Amino acid sequence: MEKERQILVIFPHPDDEAFGVSGTLALHIQNGTPVTYACLTLGEMGRNLGNPPFATRESLPQIRKVELQNAAQSIGIQDLRMLGYRDKTVEFEDPERLADHMGEIIADVNPSLIITFYPGYSVHPDHDATGAAVVKAVGRLAPEKRPKLHCVAFSKNTLDELGAPDIVNDVTAVSDQKIATIKAHASQTQLMIQNMAEKLKANDPDMIAWVNNERFWTYKF
Predict the structure, then answer these.
(1) Is the pLDDT of residue 169 over 90?
(2) What parts of the sequence cross the membrane (predicted)?
(3) Going by DSSP bridges, is the β-strand pair 35-39/79-82 parallel, antiparallel, or unpaired?
């Protein structure tokens, strides 16, 4: 991987960082690159409450806040910013104001690389709205001042419309950190972790490939 000066990750929910980028971030941090993670919400509307349930609708926001902090620690992120937006309402924020806020964070962090969701290809409305705001904020910058923009995409039409990923990072060396990051979001991932462990124990090639490789599309203005 190319060494970066500073990375800014912008996602709407706790655990968005865990599945597709935690290994990449861990490798960058090992390489001496500082990472800032701006998480818009606390995922307080998450459908899972643990298995068996250990959270309630009232306690879930605080639980997910702690899980997010633990996940960031698993990766090695020291600059975690919780922005205070409400879960499942990011799509209803004023697009210009949301882009303004993203622009303020970008100006403050001054990253060489931003990682976010690819708008239109990330399934959840909050994902798409967040990615669109980041794209808008970066697009306002002069071309020579824009950081690189690497996007996560996983909708069914991704490969047909965007083509193969521009970047595939082998994160095998930090797969334990990636799994620990996923485990940190216990309220949402307990069943998934059990299934993952069984498939990894059985040497399931698809699960091994999913854990050990992280894919990104470069956003082209």
Answers:
(1) yes
(2) none
(3) parallel
